[in-house]
User: Fold this.
Amino acid sequence: MMLAFEFTGWWVSALKVLIAAIVVPTCAAIAVYLFLFKLISFMQSRLGPMEAGPHGTAQLLAEVAKWLQKEDIIPDAADKKLFKLPPFIILGTTFLMFVVIPAGPTAVVSSLPAGIFYVLAVSSISVIGVLIAGWASSNKYALMGGIRAAGQLIAYELPMVLAVLGVVIQAGTLNLQEIVYQQSGGEIFGWSGIGNPYILTQLVGFLIFMVAVQAELGQTPFDMPVAESEVVGGYLVEYTGIRFLVFFLSEFAGAVGFSAIAATLFLGGWNLPDSWGISRGLMHFIGPIVILTKAMALTGVIFWVRFSMPRLREDQLQKFAWKFLIPASLLNIAVTAVLKVVL
Amino acid sequence: MTAITDRQKLAYIAGQAADARVNIELETEGMTLNMGPQHPATHGTLRIVAKLDGEQVIAADPIMGYMHRGYEKLAEVRTYAQVTTLVNRIDWLGSFANEVPFILASEQLMGIEAPPRAQWIRTLLFELSRVANIILFLGDMAVQLGALTPVFFAFRDREHVLNQIESATGGRFHPNFDRIGGIKDDLPKGWLAETKATMANVRKFCDEMEELVMGSQIFEARTRGIGVIPPDVAQQYGLSGANLRASGVDWDIRRDNNIGLVYDKLDWKVWTHTDGDSFARFWVRMQETREACNMIEQLCDGVPSGPIMAKVPRIIKVPAGEAFVSTENPLGEMGYYIVSQGDLTPFRVKIRTASFNNVSITPWILRGVYVPDIITILASLYFILGDIDR
Amino acid sequence: MSSNEVEVAEEAPPTDELRESLVSRLTELVGDAVLEHHIVVGKDVWIRVKNEAWVEVGNAVRVPMGARFFGFVSAIDWMPSPYGRSMDSAVDTIVKGATDKPVPEMVTGYAGGESRFQVIARVTNLKAGWSLNLKTDVGDAEPSVASWTQVYAGADWHEREVFEMFGINFVGHPGLRKIYLPGDFEGNPMRKDFPLLARMVKPWPGIVDTEPMPGANEPADAASSEEAVS
Assistant:
């Protein structure tokens, strides 16, 4: 297979970045259409958007066009410079997350040796954006939302890291690409029919990770930072037009991103089991489709939960994180480490 | 019961402590949060000025009047028949129920009684408006707690009920159907069977809500022990309807002080709950919706034939006197105190609405709770702004 | 009070033992503070008490008599409206000369009254299933009465409403301020001498509704039966 991936030089990276810059918003748009518009409409026994394009497929474009036309309002009392900053911080961190997510043997912007560590580090930068947004809006609801978001992200960062640790211990590497290969090449008690996706051995870790993702993204039942019936949108309350659009899209891109990471860590990533004998060349093409499918399935779960659960209270959320999730994930690590040594 | 009252006490003490802390120790100024008049949780234009210490409420002061329309004054310059148009707009979700106590009070003053068929149809429409009203509560409570889906189900199934009200009265929201001495029109053909079919729908909706909302652990965590109202406090503030029964007070005007409606001919049950918290209020309303379905089915089966209008003069002059008649409306006890001086218009009409009393407890109950609990408590008290402001 | 049922007397001279017993019990408790009472048999009872004893009466009905449920507190302005019914349309005024009508005498309702303003409250005993309507005279020029907030906590907002709408002062109320109207609103809208401006500007045409239907040759007062189609 002769592919562009064989070229070398700085512009290869540039090309990859360009592709990522197109792929990420596209994924977010697909997620919005599939889940926010259609899955939810189905759940709520209504049709959802039907007018723009066949079955409303172009609805998102229409919405974007609408948002772009809206007046860009900045409150008088707001800290103007800071107010403009957060959408781009949050969008930036979301994009940076995608840097290390592999979508094929070579289809990764940069295969960092400590990839998973990098993802977790980068994803938590977004909290700074949220805090700035909350503070700079000079709005009490925004401030409360921002502070809630900060408290929540700190509380849920920890179980997320600890949940990932189990995988890292089992795989013995921090590199996402390596973790993928470990899973596709592994075997379950000598049977290698489906490789060894870590969801089987790290089920507890997977569940904790997904719960933490739900909280990290601020989706119901953990959406207190933006709870519309309490703090009326929280840190988003003063943002309109294009700035809100950026927040909105990065939320969905983030959902896809975290789902892709979960798929990579626990579901075998882009790779199919080695025992199926698919040639590596073919995987260049199949890989992206596989990871996208898995990521979308997980995104679907995230939104499914989002639209069926009521919201927890802030203190209940903190209790849940510190008294349940963190001990559970520590236990998971301990068991994993012991088994790793013993077996 | 004891565990919950302890909790209530603790919340109250915490509120007091927060107050003291702000005033003396730290000298941090509490944040004053202005919820409303345009706030999604106040469904209408209630404004709550809450003093906060962190997320804890130290003091909450509801401010209303953004929708005050002065119906009591307006009623003084309208004939009795014209007043029903006004009072329709008080609790706009169950508007037929607003007309009934006014008409009953007027009938009591005039000493006439509606014929049996009119009474049955009145009761039937009364219960239908209760269902139309409470269905929305069941969905709305969930949406206030962050679950978006149930409210869509609520609107979907409420539509069927509204259709029934519309086909009988001609108005989806403001029927203006009740007349002194009877009702305006007879029921359309086939209406009773359709209504019974609709009730099957509502029952299914209740089952769905039970699974989707009440079955959720998060919902329980958010509502159990939140906003506990002991029975004595509930009576002092004049809470009524499901709010009162959720506090364990077994009082239902339909059973205990029924005037002019046919509840005594039906087989039904008054539901109470001993906890007095937000969950209990939700639970009681859920059971009441089911009970209302039962009643409507019985009413549909039992409507007698006969005239729908008693003999009344064309020009209605109500003899001098005073009367207070209240009914168990969807929101609670709604009553009209009518003073007549024998004129075409009432001399004075005092409208005793349920929500006004129900919400007057908020300064007491919101003390010491967290900001998200404000929403839970307000949603579970269930008020309609028109019913507060009149 | 011992009987749980509201007994509608069916014998020839209608009496209402339950409500009679309520009045005598209250008289027993507060002595001569009870001025007058009126019973509508089987329906309701009105008791007028002395202004000074308002709180004492409240306590008496709440604790010993057990009427713990608070219905409402409101007021009545017995002065006949100087603006008439505000509902005579322009046609009526010309034809009948409605403006010449003399302003009628002030008439008070059940249980009598001595002043223009009366405060009325309704409380219920939920266990026994009876209600009391309590009235008290509060004066003409500067009406005032003691506040019930220490008796029934729920009276708070009701008294604020009455204060705003009728200008009746409730002595001892913790925060007597406006409840509905904006802070700078002047006047007390529910007083009869407060004009309903909407009617001043444009007379209500609705009176036409109660005129005889065209073609109906009966006098206006006669009962025209509206038979149901059934």
Observations:
- Chains A and C do not touch (no CB pair under 8 Å).
- Residues 10-43 of chain A form the longest helix (34 residues).
- The two ends of chain A are 40 Å apart (CA to CA).
- The CA atoms of residues 197 and 268 of chain A lie 5 Å apart.
